[in-house]
Amino acid sequence: MAISVPLPLSPPPMAEANEELRDSVRERGETGSVHSWELVTAVDGPGSRLTVFLAGCALRCQYCQNPDTWRMSNGVRHTVAEVMEKVARYEKVLKATGGGLTVSGGEPLLQADFVERIFHEAKKLNIHTALDTSGFLGARASNDLLHDTDLVLLDVKSGDPEIYRQVTGRALEPTLDFGRRLSAQGITIWLRYVLVPGLTDTVENVAAVAEYAGSLDTVERVEVLPFHQMGRDKWTALKQEYTLADTEPPSAELIQRVRDQFAEHGLTVF
Ligand code: SF4
User: Fold this and answer.
1) What are phi and psi of 97, to 5 degrees?
2) Which of 17, 199, 205, 244 is the most buried (most CB within 10 A)?
3) How far apart are CA 255 and CA 223, in angstroms?
4) pTM (predicted TM-score)
5) 134 lines ligand 1 (CB under 6 A)
6) For the domain that residue 80 is a member of, what is the CATH number?
7) CA 26 to ligand 1 centroid distance, Å
């Protein structure tokens, strides 16, 4: 059966993404661009979590639910102290539920210095820290940042480099390198895979991700996330062409097949 693969979006040149970095680098992470906050339970890590969404992303995933986070200028500048004030407000509930702080985006590693400072402060309070990342900018995560990171939610968007580029506009290898580095440093990974019919669902593509996940020592769970249309209105509001407008969510059978493919590698699958 022929598989129709929608055309990729064009991500900004890295020079433009680097331009967005300039402020945060100059200030060495004292302030960062925060898009929004959310108090959640049973997503983005264990327990109840304060999730901080940072603005800015170097990828342009076709199924992105939050295209409004793509540009760093779409956030509000906050100091580390301001973020920690908010964290402290929820400290009791986060700890009582075995939860913690998650930094997501956008792509948090676009502001790696800022995340490093926030996590360092959180660990002083003995708060669990989770980093939700595509891993594309993993090389920008310092060892100090990883030292203060308890969990990485690693979004591996494809196992096939060509499909990865079709999905995100970028290269796959930096993500794979980052996962190997996390594994070597003993950092727990929850690997996430967004299942999109007609785009990421081929047996070969899933097998490549499953084999990779199985090769790492610290993958505690794999989350297969079925594609849905919940981000669609944001694309329309931003006047961006949404290539997955006609894509249906995966069937229960397809989701099960993909979960089974991961389980074959001895992985715990959700
Ligand atoms: S990495 Fe995340 S925020 Fe960035 S485009 Fe992809 S889905 Fe959207």
Assistant:
1) -100, 5
2) 199
3) 11
4) 0.92
5) yes
6) 3.20.20.70
7) 25
